[in-house]
Design goal:
Shape: globular
Strand order of the largest sheet: 8-5-6-7-2-15
Distance between the termini: 50 Å
Radius of gyration: 22 Å
Order of helices and strands: HEHEHEEEHEEHEHHEHHEEHHEEEEEEH
Strand content: 15-25%
Helix content: 25-40%
Length: 441
């Protein structure tokens, strides 16, 4: 049996940390993947988690938002310093809050959406970790805010922490200086907040380190022979089609009634089956496809630290006749018994079992529970969430489901690889499969 990837990483980390003049913190398996992927990508951009919010024109006080970002970041080591590589070892270098609040210019004839999309594509390779970008059209009635975070510092739980704490920090700043609106600094309208906050809070630093240590312990424990045997059985037949990141993308969306009653107990397996149907329509292969989905949270007993504590699990999507939902759910629950096995270990298990799979994903599925994420309220106004088409994808196909008062389903695809007509047919297959599982006659 090979030594675990986590154990090998920790040995390299301890060596790098011992010789460093500044404090270095280890990374979770997901964080390491993000940094490695960034280094291998031609553009060198980080994977970004964005939230797009619309407000009535004139709502956002940009300098106040910058100060709120700094006040929030100082409480979270993942938003301070920067993710980097020391002697070939991915680490978090502890330092000052890494935030930006900036006005993004809208080109003549352009839109706020296109301006924000371009600004996010132009993310600097060395940060900042948290960016709050505002764009408004000259004659528009709304201003659009992109709350965007380096994925190495953010998962779904972290996004909810951020919206709640930014709301509180903005309100405190407003109460401290009622009626004041600071002037935007810099030619590009950037506002970075107070320079007095030079390092993360020490209690927060200890809590973050504890959470990371518990996560790494869980990942190491989940890399044993039983986990390798399980993933080898599940994924040994994956062939894949050579997925990978893509730039030119399209998006389709549709709203369905929220899943209720018995349907909620098998909600995620139904989404997996629907995504598999769409993936096979797009890829048009008889082979088994690799569908990834983020799963996980803080280990039991860990502090609720902001960061990235998820893992990417893999679902083998086989072609052919429809599968009973009970069978899908049973297989999925068994996968969750090994949900802490790091992705690299899962790929190793699949290849050991005979799969030629490289580890590139043919599709991604994400699920957001909107009931668990408070709104970002600025100046007493809650932001209205919206979505931007055309953003880069980590796989040729991405399905996103947001579950709140209803179920918003979005499918994004690689325009250079799949014709729009095929994408629309794939989306029809996805919706038909969901309806069959969640809304039986």
């Amino acid at each position: 049996m090979h030594a675990s990837i986590t154990a090998a990483y920790l040995a390299r980390y301890r060596s790098a940390a011992a010789d460093s003049p500044v404090e270095l913190l280890p990374l979770t398996g997901a964080q390491r993947r993000f940094l490695i992927t960034r280094r291998l990508a031609a553009q060198g951009r980080p994977d970004v988690v964005p939230l797009f919010l619309a407000y009535p024109r004139g709502t956002i006080d940009l300098p106040r938002l910058g100060r709120a970002a700094t006040a929030t970041a100082v409480r979270h080591p993942a938003l301070c310093g920067g993710f980097t590589t020391v002697r070939g070892t991915p680490v978090l270098r502890v330092g000052a809050p890494s935030t930006e609040a900036a006005q993004v210019a809208v080109a003549p004839g352009g839109t706020a959406r296109s301006a924000l999309r371009e600004a996010l594509l132009d993310w600097p390779a060395d940060g900042p970790t948290l960016r709050l970008l505002v764009a408004r059209e000259p004659d528009g009635e709304e201003e659009l805010l992109a709350l965007a975070v380096d994925h190495a510092a953010c998962d779904e739980q972290s996004l909810g922490i951020l919206t709640a704490e930014l709301t509180d920090a903005y309100a405190r700043d407003e109460a401290a200086a009622p009626g004041s609106r600071g002037a935007v600094s810099g030619a590009d309208g950037a506002a970075s907040g107070s320079a007095a906050a030079s390092a993360p809070d020490q209690a927060a630093l200890a809590a973050y380190r504890e959470a990371i240590d518990l996560q790494l312990a869980a990942e190491s424990a989940a890399a044993g022979p039983a986990a390798h045997a399980h993933w080898g059985r599940r994924l040994g037949g994956i062939t894949g089609t050579g997925g990978g990141a893509t730039e030119a993308t399209g998006m389709l969306s549709h709203r369905l009634p929220a899943a209720e009653g018995a349907a909620r107990t098998a909600f995620f397996p139904a989404l997996l089956d629907a995504t598999a149907a769409a993936a096979h329509r797009l890829h048009q292969t008889d082979g088994q496809l690799a569908l990834g989905y983020p799963w996980g949270g803080r280990p039991p007993g860990a502090p609720a630290a902001l960061g990235c504590f998820l893992n990417t699990l893999v679902h083998p999507a086989a072609p052919g006749a429809a599968t009973a939902l009970d069978d899908l759910a049973d297989a999925w629950w068994k996968d969750l018994d090994h949900a802490d096995t790091p992705f690299d270990e899962v790929v190793r298990a699949a290849r050991t079992a005979g799969s030629p799979w490289s580890g590139a994903l043919d599709g991604m599925l994400t699920l957001e529970d909107l009931h668990r994420r408070p709104p970002l309220v600025l100046g007493g106004v809650p932001g209205r969430e919206t979505h931007l088409a055309g953003r880069p994808l980590a796989a040729p196909l991405a399905v996103a489901a947001a579950h709140g008062d209803d179920l918003l389903v979005r499918l994004a695809w690689d325009r250079e690889r799949f014709p729009e007509a095929t994408a629309r047919a794939a989306f029809d297959d996805l919706l038909a499969t969901l309806r069959r599982h969640l809304q039986p006659a």
